[in-house]
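F.,

This is the one I mentioned.
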């Protein structure tokens, strides 16, 4: 089996609601897209995804 681990190192992200920049990490989770195969071996792609929290007080989310 081949396991590939990927994680994002972005400093922040834009809020989809207000469009403001947020660098406050709210949490993270693992995602496992459909398993692949390569040369007869099973390949597992393991993505670590971070969630950012919007810091705009006027945005109620």
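My design for it:
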């Amino acid at each position: 089996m081949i396991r590939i681990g990927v994680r994002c190192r972005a400093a922040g992200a834009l809020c989809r609601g207000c469009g403001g920049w947020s660098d406050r990490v709210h949490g993270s989770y693992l995602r496992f897209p459909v398993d692949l195969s390569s040369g007869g071996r099973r390949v597992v792609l393991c993505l670590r995804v971070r969630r950012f929290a919007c810091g705009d007080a006027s945005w109620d989310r």
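The CA atoms of residues 18 and 31 lie 26 Å apart.

Talk soon.
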